[in-house]
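User: hey, got a sec? need NADH-ubiquinone oxidoreductase chain 4L folded
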Amino acid sequence: MMMLMYWSLPIFMFLMGVIVFISNRKHLLSMLLSLEFIVLSLFFFLFMYLSYLSNESYFSMMFLTFSVCEGALGLSILVSMIRTHGNDYFQSFSVLQC
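Assistant: Yep! Here you go:
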């Protein structure tokens, strides 16, 4: 019973992150936060799976490195969008202007 709870918590976190990502499309910052929550839940699931196989140290650190790079790239896109358009609303952003 306890093992089922350990495996269902990251899956529940992932599904809640996907629901927030789909439902909240007004601001870029809220979408980036929901993507980071999804990455955090995937890391949690991956860490639990690899610790079950007793091989968690190397690949989990690689995953964290790539997720930090993904977060920095998202923040740089957010900063450049705010500098060029003045806000992070998707309604004021048009692909044809670029």
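Quick note: Helices lie at 2-23, 28-52, 57-85. Let me know if you need anything else on NADH-ubiquinone oxidoreductase chain 4L.
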